[in-house]
Amino acid sequence: MKTFLLLMIIMMGCASYTHSQTKSIDYGNNDVAGKYYFIRGIRVYCEIYGSGKPLLMIHGNGGSVGAFKNNIPYFAKNYKVIVADSRSQGKSADPKDSLSFEMMADDQAALLDALYIDSAFVLGWSDGGIIAILMAIRHPEKVIKLASTGANLWPDSTAIIPSFWMRDKQHFDTMDARKLKSVKDKNDWKLFLLDWYQPNIALSELKSVKCPSLIIGGDHDLIRVEHTTVIFQNIPNASLWILPNSGHATLIDYADEFNRKVDAFFSPVNHK
């Protein structure tokens, strides 16, 4: 009996320690999981967790690996989770002026090549959702299935709710880029202009997406629900999921439900 109780105490202690370790991981600043890869002219920072089928996660504008801190622990149980800081964001510095979603989609495909991974499931949020869709257009062989939340195809107020678009317009109209001096301020302006002028994805391009796709948005997203629906309607093998009472941060505000739903879409075998 004492041996059994002692074993139970040890097991509970180990479980508690493991849980504590998981909670204490600083995603985006984890020297154990993180590494730089030379990708298309720049050093791209990437962290990898878990094992299994590859799952590539792509963050939004101005974000980093840490954007997925509520999702990585769940998916790392069954997948090899690959998360990189996109070009000009996080630890993946790029001092050049040019920046496009197509460029970043090509970066992600090249990262998979650098990791000797033929194809992966792809999950993208916001700008990452745009990049995920462009990966499926430009590198269809790389994408097994894609889940895209909070993506838009073009940058005007037919895609973005007017209040948010007008705020950005005011910022654009009043900004004098000549006054920007620091590297950070110039980079922030480059990232702002990325979303102001882009993306520019034609509906006809969506027709070429062959992989199963889950298109996601919140019913109070900064991307119009009507626009998210248009994306869904123009991808041949797509499903639509609009989260009720949710804004743009679907994968954060409803992390548990989001993780389960996307997991079930990617690999139903995990739920048998």
Give a description of the structure.
By secondary structure, the protein is an alpha/beta fold. It folds into 2 domains: 30 residues; 240 residues, Alpha/Beta hydrolase fold, catalytic domain (Rossmann fold). 41% of the residues lie in helices and 19% in strands. The protein has 10 helices and 8 strands. Helix 3 packs across helix 4. The longest helix has 23 residues. The N terminus is likely disordered.
Largest sheet: 8 strands, mixed
Computed structural class: alpha/beta
Tell me the count of domains. Answer: 2
CATH superfamily of the largest domain: Alpha/Beta hydrolase fold, catalytic domain
Report the top-level CATH class of the largest domain.
Alpha Beta
Fill in the CATH topology of the largest domain: Rossmann fold
CATH architecture of the largest domain: 3-Layer(aba) Sandwich
Number of helices: 10
Share of residues in strands: 15-25%
